[in-house]
Amino acid sequence: MLAIFRKEIHQFFSSITGYIAIILFLLANGLLLFVFPDTSLLDYGYANLDPLFNLAPIIYLLLIPAITMRSFADEFKSGTMELLSTKPLSWWQIVNGKFFAGLLIVLISLIPTFVYYIAIRKLSAQNTVLDNGGIAGSYIGLFLLGAVFTAIGVWASSLTTNSVVAFLTAIFTCFIFYYGFDSLSKLPAFSGSADYYLQMAGIRFHYTSISRGVIDSRDVVYFFSIIALMLYLTRLSLQRRIWD
Length: 244
What we know:
By secondary structure, this protein is mainly α. The protein has 12 helices and no strands. The protein starts with a helix and ends with a helix.
């Protein structure tokens, strides 16, 4: 697994594409949080990072599929997947190596955003106390969200030899998991009956819950369950493609 992990990290940072993806993520956040007036922290009126945690999932919808789209698609396209399957590696080692490499890149993109926290502390009025618990919970929620999107992206990449198709499939699936169930619960047909359970089936419900600063075990179990499900589906997809 470590060999695949190192290979993925090296491949990502061996081209300018990897650096551009992370730079664009940070640039988009920076512009939205400090330049554009509608979302600027400077005009928000409160010393917190709520705009960051509201905007980051939207940016992750594009960034993470771009990171993971080549995970397996390029392996199948170049014919190296068959060679990789003959190595003394289990399917889980292959899948987990790809997943954790993508997750590390997501984490690398997230770490520089701590600069925004420092900026808010410096710019806030004297004796202002930040909601450190809420901010910490939001960062944990954003990391778990990134992990789920990474697992979905790896799964999407295992379905096709075309990285663009994998990219679009991952975006669509992430969108459905994050916004789809929440939007479906607002339909009049589900009002007062299944609306709450539909919300609970979506990522946004649990992400918002953790962002309040209270780490509920049910939210953590939900995130890990979705990750485990997507990685399991990835393993099944790889086995089917290799055996067929």
